[in-house]
Every structure is written in structure tokens, then in C-alpha cells.
């Protein structure tokens, strides 16, 4: 099953094939630099991913030789100055994106094909798997621009790589290699450029073809939301609810029966209708005006 690229987006391209939606950042002449329109396009496509049961996994990559060169700096030194907006009203665009990804019920894979700096790398932090081309270069360059890490990355990055590694990259602001990203735990693997898309799709296909969509959706939310838990008892309480709810459902029956019968599973569950009644169990705090 292949759905042609959606022409309605200005800064991204999408293709749905075999239950995998490939989202390609598409401003290749600007190394896919992030702007307001790209934010709007990505927020829309996340809603689409979560609302369509035909989409099991989303895969994000960049057009041309870059993944995303960070924020669009075409306004020069005033690129980050917000005129006519009060401090208490300002919302960081990168943060709006990563918070929405954090709440997504579908798994997200970043295939980092080239330079990914600033918001180009922080946008990937709430994605679930990051793999990189050996040509990729990454950097949390904010201190070299007189800024601080955005996109809620002061929360995400230490949880992904640990506080010491996070502070080294943030305090130096240097751009580093894919090999260093792998050693620091930012990406799970580095592959030759020609093999990147195939490697990313292989992971996506394994999810799409062999797992329960409901199980993956709930597991994703449990893993992310429990990062801030104070005690493993919080996980135990939630595990117990989830095992009780899913254990009574059709997907668990099919998972066991297909295993015993030595055949591929055909899970009937749908994320749009079959998440357990206790989901969502955690309400996001409001933004203070």
C-alpha cells in the first residue's frame, strides 16, 4: 500500500507505504532549516499519524544532504527577537513540537541523514529511535549563539544521554560526529549513508508487521511518562492496570494463540478505539500565562 506524497504541505513531504509514514523535511536549499511553516506542517502531520490506524510507525528524515540545519536565521541578528509579544505570552516553537511528539501514541524513528544542529537535533529527542548516517554531524550549538537549549531539551537530553554527556555537548556548543553521537548514546546505530533509509525502514517494518499497535502505543506512553517517577511502585501500579486491561483483550488472545500455533499474529486492536479506559492517566500541566 503506497499513498503518494501529500502536496498540501509546504515544508515537508509524506509517503505512506506498508503502514510506515515517511516524513521528509523538505527545504533542501536551506538544509531544511526550521521555520514557522515547518512547525505548523509537523504539528499537523503528528495529528494525522495519531488519528490514522493505517499508520503504525512514522519515520522522519531530511531532503538533500541535510537533516535540519536548525532554526532559519534569514533575519540575521534579530532572528530570535520577538517584537510585539510579551514575555509571558511567548511559546518556544521547538517546545510546542517536542511536547506534541511526547504525547503521540505512535512510535517515531529519526533517520538523521546529514547535519542536525540546534532544533534540528532537539526535535528528535522525544522520538523513540534515532539512527544516523556516517555523514551526519550533530550539535547543541545554543551557547555559541547566545541562547539556551530549547524544545524542552533541558528535560529530554539528560534523560536520553545522562547529565554529564548532555552538559558537555551543551556547554561547548560544538558540532560533533555521528560516531561521537553513538558513543554518547544519542543515536542507537550509525550506518553508511547509502544504507540509512533501509536500516530505518527495517526497524519500522519490524514494529508494523509483528506487534500490537495498542501494546506499542501504551508502552510508549508508559516508558516516557515514567521517566520522572519517584519510585518503581508507580510503574508497578501502572503495569498492573495495563496487564489487567490488555490481558482481557483480543490482542493478547491473538498474541498467545498465534505463538502457540506458530503463525504470524493478526492483531485486531486499533489505537483509535482500543486504548484502555485509564489512558491517559497523566494530565499535562498548563502553561502559565
Give an overview in words:
The chain is an alpha/beta fold. The protein folds into two domains: 207 residues, 2-enoyl-CoA Hydratase, Chain A, domain 1 (Alpha-Beta Complex); 64 residues, Lyase 2-enoyl-coa Hydratase, Chain  A, domain 2 (Orthogonal Bundle). It is built from eleven helices and ten strands. The chain has a seven-stranded mixed β-sheet, sandwiched between helices. A three-stranded mixed β-sheet has the order 6-8-9.
Q: What's the arrangement of secondary structure elements?
A:
Blueprint: E1 2-3, E2 12-17, E3 20-25, H1 36-51, E4 57-62, H2 93-103, E5 108-112, E6 116-117, H3 119-122, E7 129-133, E8 137-139, H4 153-161, H5 163-172, E9 175-177, H6 178-183, E10 189-191, H7 196-210, H8 213-225, H9 232-247, H10 250-260, H11 271-274
Parallel strand pairs: 3-4, 4-5, 5-7, 6-8, 7-10
Antiparallel strand pairs: 1-2, 2-3, 8-9
Helix pairs in contact: 1-2, 4-5
Amino acid at each position: 500500500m503506497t499513498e503518494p506524497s501529500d502536496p498540501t504541505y509546504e515544508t515537508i513531504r509524506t509517503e505512506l507505504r506498508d503502514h510506515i509514514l515517511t516524513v521528509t523535511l523538505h527545504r533542501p536549499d536551506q538544509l531544511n532549516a526550521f521555520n514557522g511553516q515547518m512547525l505548523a506542517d509537523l504539528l499537523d502531520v503528528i495529528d494525522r499519524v495519531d488519528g490514522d490506524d493505517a499508520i503504525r510507525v512514522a519515520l522522519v528524515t531530511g531532503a538533500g544532504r541535510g537533516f535540519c540545519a536548525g532554526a532559519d536565521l534569514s533575519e540575521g541578528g534579530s532572528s530570535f527577537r520577538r517584537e510585539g509579544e510579551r514575555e509571558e505570552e511567548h511559546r518556544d516553537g521547538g517546545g510546542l513540537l517536542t511536547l506534541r511528539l511526547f504525547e503521540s501514541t505512535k512510535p517515531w524513528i529519526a533517520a538523521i541523514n546529514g547535519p542536525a544542529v540546534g532544533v534540528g537535533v532537539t526535535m528528535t529527542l522525544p522520538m523513540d529511535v534515532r539512527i544516523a548516517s556516517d555523514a551526519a554531524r550533530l550539535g547543541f550549538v545554543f551557547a555559541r549563539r547566545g541562547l539556551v537549549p530549547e524544545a524542552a531539551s533541558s528535560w529530554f537530553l539528560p534523560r536520553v544521554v545522562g547529565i554529564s554527556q548532555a552538559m558537555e555537548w551543551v556547554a561547548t556548543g560544538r558540532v560533533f560526529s555521528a560516531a561521537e553521537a553513538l558513543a554518547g548514546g544519542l543515536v542507537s546505530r550509525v550506518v553508511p549513508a547509502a544504507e540509512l533509509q533501509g536500516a530505518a525502514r527495517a526497524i519500522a517494518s519490524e514494529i508494523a508487521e509483528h506487534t500490537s499497535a495498542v501494546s506499542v502505543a501504551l508502552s510508549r506512553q508508559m516508558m516516557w511518562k515514567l521517566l520522572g517517577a519517584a519510585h518503581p511502585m508507580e510503574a508497578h501500579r501502572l503495569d498492573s492496570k495495563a496487564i489487567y486491561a490488555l490481558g482481557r483483550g483480543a490482542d493478547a488472545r491473538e498474541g498467545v494463540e498465534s505463538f502457540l500455533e506458530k503463525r504470524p499474529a493478526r492483531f485486531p486492536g486499533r489505537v483509535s478505539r482500543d486504548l484502555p479506559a485509564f489512558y491517559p492517566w497523566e494530565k499535562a500541566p498548563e502553561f502559565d500565562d
